[in-house]
Design brief:
By secondary structure, the chain is of the alpha+beta class. It has a single domain, classed as Fumarylacetoacetase-like, C-terminal domain (Fumarylacetoacetate hydrolase, domain 2, Alpha-Beta Complex), CATH 3.90.850. The termini are far apart. Helices cover about 15% and strands about 35% of the residues. The protein has a six-stranded mixed beta sheet with strand order 4-3-14-7-8-11. A four-stranded antiparallel beta sheet has the order 13-12-16-17, with no helix packed on it. Pfam families: FAA_hydrolase.
């Protein structure tokens, strides 16, 4: 087969480490669920079990464990949001809830970095969240733990500290929409594909980060993700 002749150099492929393996997980798209914990919804001024809504980050926004995350421009209020991340091995559309977990490869810890001041202005103006959420280095992520090795967690403590100070403390059992429900809902809007990542939302306790801060996110069974803001 003849190699394509590109007019500019193609971007490098994006992948994430897999725990205890030299093989890597290729990333297709990144989907994120908004306000998926009741306490966090309340701290953001909302309440109730609303239908899930989604936004996206870009694959090259990922920052792997052990690498720093630069403080982004155009914000004075950067926030941390530690989340369970779902990695899909199979895609599809209109996936039934009872079939959803069969599409999952594994799970990881993710950090949804957010320009909170930019997001607040976007909300006031009824504008998209892209500049608040989908900026470079906005999605630190730990190694993916295969479900074949660790199962499909339905509960587990989720915490975040900043410079050793406790910030977030919740449980993934408190998600308003469970992982199977998220996958099912998302597949009604998008044709999901192998390599998709889903950030599933964050519990209460989100807060401001400054240059030099060290965020440590932890989820029971998945270990820790440490990120320095530089």
């Amino acid at each position: 087969m003849t190699e394509p002749n590109y007019v500019v150099a193609p971007p490098p492929s994006v992948s994430v480490a897999v725990r205890d393996s030299t093989a890597r997980f290729p990333v297709h798209r990144i989907y994120c669920v908004g306000r998926n914990y009741a306490a966090h919804a309340r701290e953001m001024g909302h309440d109730g079990r609303e239908p899930p809504f989604f936004f996206q980050k870009n694959p090259d926004d990922l920052v792997e464990a052990g690498k720093p995350a630069p403080y982004p421009p155009q914000t004075a209020d950067l926030h941390h949001e530690v989340e369970l991340v779902v990695a899909l091995a199979e895609g599809g559309s209109d996936i039934a809830v009872e079939d959803a977990l069969a599409h999952v490869y594994g799970y990881a810890i993710g950090l949804d970095l957010t320009r909170r001041d930019v997001q607040a202005e976007a909300k006031k103006a009824a504008r998209p969240w892209a500049t608040a959420k989908a900026f470079a280095n906005s999605a630190p992520i730990g190694p993916i733990v295969p479900a074949s090795a660790n199962g499909h967690p339905k509960s587990g403590r989720l915490t975040a500290t900043v410079n050793g100070e406790p910030r977030q403390d919740g449980d993934i059992a408190d998600m308003i929409w469970s992982v199977p429900e998220i996958i099912s809902h998302l597949s009604r809007w998008f044709l999901l594909a192998p390599g998709d990542l889903i950030f599933t939302g964050t519990p209460a306790g989100v807060g401001e980060l400054k240059r030099g801060d060290v965020v440590v996110g932890a989820i029971e069974g998945l270990g820790q993700l440490e990120v320095r803001i530089v």
